[in-house]
């Protein structure tokens, strides 16, 4: 590439999941990444049959998005998200799921353009979320983070 990379996104078909063996090096470097995904999955109270894919091109999993700090606030993430929604619909997908670790990302995916519908599925307040440690004491596992982590589903 001969241009500056300012925003990236990763998505994959739920019917063709990520190879967890290849994801494990990331989880080892960022152990709370895996913890977040586990917590948000436990908080998801939907019946899996109501949304999970039964074949290809049904549910798109949006796995990551990031904008370079000096380009934040320019609307790049929102434009990219809305582009992906339109393209996924054209390809026959019925929904997109994304886990979010930034309020702007949650807002964008919860408020998609018409005719799409965004729904906040689960959320965790990382400042106050606690788990029981091995010694029986309650521990704020994400401290000192003050971010809300969410799971959003967009019906296309």
What does this structure look like?
This is N-acetyltransferase domain-containing protein. With 156 residues, the protein is an alpha+beta fold. It has one domain: Aminopeptidase. 29% of the residues lie in helices and 28% in strands. The strands form two sheets. A five-stranded mixed sheet has the order 1-2-3-7-4, with helices on both faces. A two-stranded antiparallel sheet has the order 5-6. Helix 1 crosses helix 2 (31-43).
Global mean pLDDT? 93
CATH class: Alpha Beta
Shape estimate: globular
Number of helices: 4
> Low-confidence parts, pLDDT < 50 over ≥5 residues?
none
Number of beta strands: 7
Which bin fits the share of residues in helices? 25-40%
When the domains are counted, the total is 1
Order of helices and strands: EHHEHEHEEEE
Rg calc: 17 Å
**Main sheet, how many strands, which sense, barrel?**
5 strands, mixed
* CATH level-two architecture: 3-Layer(aba) Sandwich
* CATH topology grouping: Aminopeptidase
Q: How large a portion of the residues is in β-strands, by DSSP E?
A: 25-35%
Question: What is the end-to-end distance?
Answer: 32 Å
Helical/strand content category = alpha+beta
| CATH-level-4 superfamily name | Gcn5-related N-acetyltransferase (GNAT)
Sequence of strands across the biggest β-sheet: 1-2-3-7-4
Organism: Cryomyces minteri
Protein name: N-acetyltransferase domain-containing protein
Write a concise keyword list for the protein shown above.
Aminopeptidase; two-stranded antiparallel ribbon; 7 strands; 156 residues; alpha+beta; 4 helices; 5-stranded mixed β-sheet; single chain
């Amino acid at each position: 590439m001969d241009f500056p990379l300012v925003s990236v996104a990763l998505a994959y078909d739920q019917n063709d999941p990520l190879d967890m063996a290849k994801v494990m090096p990331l989880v080892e470097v960022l152990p709370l990444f895996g913890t977040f995904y586990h917590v948000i999955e436990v908080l998801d109270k939907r019946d899996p049959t109501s949304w999970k894919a039964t074949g290809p091109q049904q549910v798109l999993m949006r796995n990551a998005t990031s904008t370079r700090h000096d380009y934040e606030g320019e609307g790049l993430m929102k434009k990219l998200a809305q582009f992906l929604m339109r393209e996924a619909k054209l390809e026959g997908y019925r929904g997109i799921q994304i886990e979010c670790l930034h309020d702007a990302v949650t807002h964008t995916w919860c408020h998609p353009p018409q005719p799409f519908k965004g729904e906040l599925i689960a959320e965790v307040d990382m400042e106050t979320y606690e788990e029981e440690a091995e010694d029986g004491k309650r521990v704020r596992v994400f401290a000192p983070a003050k971010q809300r982590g969410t799971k959003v589903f967009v019906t296309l």
